Amino acid sequence: MREIKSIAALAGAFSTLPGVGKKTALRYAYAVIDMSEQEVDAFCAAMKDVKSQVRLCSVCGNFAEDEVCELCKTRQPKQICVVSYPKDVIAVEKTGAYDGAYHVLHGTLSPMNNRTPDDLNIKSLIGRLGGVEEVIIATNPDVEGEATAVYLARLIKPMGVKVTRIAQGISMGSELEYADSVTLSQALGRRTVL
Amino acid sequence: MREIKSIAALAGAFSTLPGVGKKTALRYAYAVIDMSEQEVDAFCAAMKDVKSQVRLCSVCGNFAEDEVCELCKTRQPKQICVVSYPKDVIAVEKTGAYDGAYHVLHGTLSPMNNRTPDDLNIKSLIGRLGGVEEVIIATNPDVEGEATAVYLARLIKPMGVKVTRIAQGISMGSELEYADSVTLSQALGRRTVL
Fold first, then answer.
1. Helices A37-53/B22-34 angle, 10° precision
2. Burial environment of residue B179 by CB neighbours within 10 A (0 to 12, 13 to 18, 19 or more)
3. What pLDDT digit, counting tens, does each position of A79-110 carry?
C-alpha cells in the first residue's frame, strides 16, 4: 500500500520527539487529521510561541520568559542546586523540600560523546558563587552524572564553598529483594546512624 | 514554581494527542524548545499539509490525496473488507493476506455515545455492493464492534451478498494460561476440525 505523502511526512516529524516510534507517530498524525483547522493553527502557534518566547535565564540557564527567570528573581542564592536539565528543576521543585536557587548545566560531562566542561553551563556557575554557602549537585546517579559531580566538586571546593551531593540508596517504597546490587551496596556503604 | 505560559500552552496542545499525559506532553514541549526554528517551521508545515491535502476517498472513506484513494483505484471490489478506522486498513494491509477493497466506517455503533447508523459511513457501502461477492466485517471484537457487525450483516445479507466476520480466538503466540476466559470460551466454541 502506497503511503499518503503528507501523512508520512507528519509522522516523520512526530517521530523526532523523544520516545516516539513509528507506530505512535502515525497515531499522532491521524489525530491531527481529526483536528479542526482552528486546533491545528493553535497547535502551530503554540510551537512557534515556545521558540520565540522561551529563552535561557542569564543567571541560572533555566528556561525563562524574561532575561532572568522567576526562580532567580525570587530565591536566595545561598544554596544553589545544580541540575543537568530544566526538567530536573521541575522534579526538585515538586518535592517542596528545597527553596534555594538552581543552576542548569544543560548536559553532563561525557568524554564518550565529546562533551567537555566548555560545552556545559559551568562558567556562569563559577561566576555566581560569591556569597554562596552550599552547592548541591543533583545530577543523575549514573556514570556521566557522577563524573560531572566529581568534576564540579574539585572545581568549587577550593573556592571555600561547601559542595554536597544528593543521597543515593534504596528508593522509598521499593523492596530490597528487587533492588539492583549496585544500589543496595551503596545503600549499605552509606548507611546512616539512627 | 510558576510555569512558563508558552511551555504550558504547548504541553496542553500535545496532551490532546491520543495517549499523551501531562508528563509526556511537557517532555514533548521541551523537545520543541531544543528544535531549530527550521525544524519547527517544517513540523508546522507538515501539520498544515496534512489538513489541506488529506481528504476522504469518495468511494471507501479511507484517507486519500485524490478524489479516490490508491486502494480503490487498484483493487477489485469483489471482496470488501469493512473496518472502523483508517488505521485498521493499515493493519489488514500489513498482513499481506488480503488483496480486495476496503470500506471505512469512521466509527462503530454505540447507543451509549449516541452513535447511530446515520453517523457512520454506511450508506455509501450499501451503494457499492453491486457485483460484490463478499463483505468481510473486520470491526474490533468488542461490544461496539460486534454490534456493528451484527447490524451490517442484517442489512447486507438480504441483498444476496455473503457477509463474513474475522475469526475470534486465541492469539498466535499467546499462552492458554493467560488468556481471558471470554476469549478462551470463544476459542473452544468456534473450534475447527483438523
1. 60
2. middle
3. 999 999 999 998 899 888 899 999 999 999 99
Give CA torsion, residues A123, A127, A132, A137, to 10 deg: 0
- Could you tell me the pTM of the whole model? 0.79
Give contacts of A 14-53 with B, CB under 8 A: 16-19, 24, 26-33, 35, 37, 39-40, 42-44, 46-51, 53
Do B172 and B183 touch, CB atoms closer than 8 A?
no
Q: pLDDT tens across B7-28, in order? A: 999 999 999 999 999 999 999 9
Q: Over 70: is that where the pLDDT of B105 sits?
A: yes
Interface confidence: ipTM more than 0.90: no
Q: Which of residues 64-93 of A touch B (CB under 8 A)?
A: 64-65, 70-71, 85-87, 89-90, 93
Closest by CA position to A131, among listed A165, A166, A160: A160
Residue B162 bridge partners (DSSP): B134
Distance CA A61, CA B194 (A): 69
Residue A2 pLDDT > 70 = no
